[in-house]
Design goal:
There is one protein chain. This protein has one domain: Ribonuclease H-like superfamily/Ribonuclease H (Nucleotidyltransferase, domain 5, 2-Layer Sandwich). It is 38% helix and 17% strand.
Length: 250
């Protein structure tokens, strides 16, 4: 089984932000312990006496908010964010990153959270189909940070599994409605938070300093970034990896 851990970055209601991002990482169940161990080791380095009190939350680290992160200067905090993301450098090849960046103004009257979830859950399901074999069909489960969207996203998943999404695709590989967990208790949700932050900074602030650490980790097949989606309608000439790879492939 593969688990897809997701978190968001950007606020739906903040008019000063152009984007909402949902993003995270999928990994086979036998890699969960490895990933947690890598992040726990970093937490022990930061706070040896109480590593479980360390919660990796990218925006809090960047802003130096909280007793732990205020001890570091800005350069050190930026390095810490990059170190969390760089856990993926030694990841198994089946550990892949997924992200959907929604340009909010391109979809007036539509919920960017639901748009992003529909997009990313479909891509995850297609990934499961692609890596399945005749003798072994891969199954998946989506895990998200707790939010007010718990009921609506569970209902959406149920609908996608039974009737299909807007593209007519049923989620055949996703075996259950999403699970919602407390980010403080899940190191991999904390990693998903950093991935979402990196993608948000790239699209909302043209800051590629974190995003560049992820480029080789997105699900990619036949030269197309299937794991990265840029939902927008304001330009046909976007040069981001998601849009560019699709134009070249067509």
């Amino acid at each position: 089984m593969f688990l897809l851990y997701l978190d968001d970055s950007g606020s739906v209601g903040n008019v000063r932000e152009d984007y909402f991002v949902l993003a995270g990482v999928t990994l086979p169940e036998n890699s969960i312990r490895w990933c947690c161990h890598e992040l726990e080791t970093l937490a022990e380095e930061i706070w040896p006496d109480a590593p479980r009190s360390v919660e990796f939350h990218a925006s809090e680290i960047f802003g130096g908010r909280g007793a732990i992160w205020s001890r570091f200067n800005k350069e050190e905090r930026i390095l810490l964010i990059k170190r969390v993301i760089s856990v993926l450098d030694n990841a198994h090849s089946q550990i892949r990153v997924f992200a959907c960046a929604v340009h909010k103004a391109s979809f007036p009257g539509q919920d960017p959270v639901e748009l992003a979830f529909e997009d990313i859950s479909s891509r995850f399901d297609l990934y499961l189909q692609r890596i399945s074999t005749e003798s072994h069909r891969e199954r998946g489960l989506i895990v998200l940070d707790r939010s007010s969207y718990e009921n609506s996203l569970q209902s959406l998943t149920h609908e996608f599994r039974r009737q299909g999404n807007r593209w007519g695709n049923q989620l055949r590989g996703v075996c259950e409605v999403p699970l919602f967990v407390d980010s403080q208790a899940s190191r991999i949700i904390q990693l998903a938070d950093h991935i979402a932050y990196a993608v948000f900074r790239f699209y909302n602030a043209a800051d590629a300093s974190y995003f560049n650490l992820l480029e080789g980790k997105f699900d990619e097949h036949d030269g197309v970034f299937h794991g990265l989606s840029h939902r927008q309608s304001y330009t046909h000439h976007c040069m981001c990896p998601a849009c560019l790879s699709r134009r070249y492939s067509s």
